[in-house]
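User: Once you have settled down, look closely at the record that follows, taking as long as you need, and be ready to discuss the fold:
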Amino acid sequence: MHEQYAHMICERREEILARMDAAVRMSGRTLDDVELVAVSKTVGIPEVLAAIDAGYRTFGENRPQELMRKLEGLGSIVDLPSVRFDMIGNLQTNKINATLGRVKLIHSIGSLHLAEAVSSRAARRMEAGELKAPQPVLIEVNVSGEETKGGFAPNDLRRHMDQLQNLCGIDIRGLMTMAPRGNKDVARSCFSDLRDLRDELAVSSGLALPELSCGMSEDFEAALVEGSTIVRLGRVVFDPMFEVL
């Protein structure tokens, strides 16, 4: 990896953490309350290694085959710090088996059908002794109502929450959403609505639902102000051309 690129990754990380710190303080929290996921889906293993050297420990992928390629490449490196991968993209049912056991958290359970499929396959893995516990997941919610976005509509999630929480192969840790791009005020409202929905469902379901995964390169500060516990940052981490405001 070119030394100049590695230096950029380090400098960016310091800028990102400073901006995150200011934002979480506005919600009465600290950086210890937030997980930063470096979205590595568009970069290669050398870029991931540069990010690891800079201090990143959690990465996000959206394709199981790319996840496996990175895990295999990193697995051959001696004395590599411990890192984890999350699945952040649309998960097809025929790729579930390639994902289970390889990721810490699946962010994108956007339908009852997918939840049932992940649960049943995870349950079989647990019965076979291949998984120690249910797969931690987040429920994807289409808060904005955009037709181009996946996820449960809020009212559909309310209606299906009982079924979801009774699936024995998944551990529902919270909610995830993506806000419309281009308007930070609209994005902040979207994140606020996700937090309110989480609070409502935590009461009605009895689940803790501690995690809110929202906020990307353009809007992570607004998400943190509204209570996000996981931000997913790609371009601001890896792209030298991304304009850091």
In short: The chain has a mean pLDDT of 95.
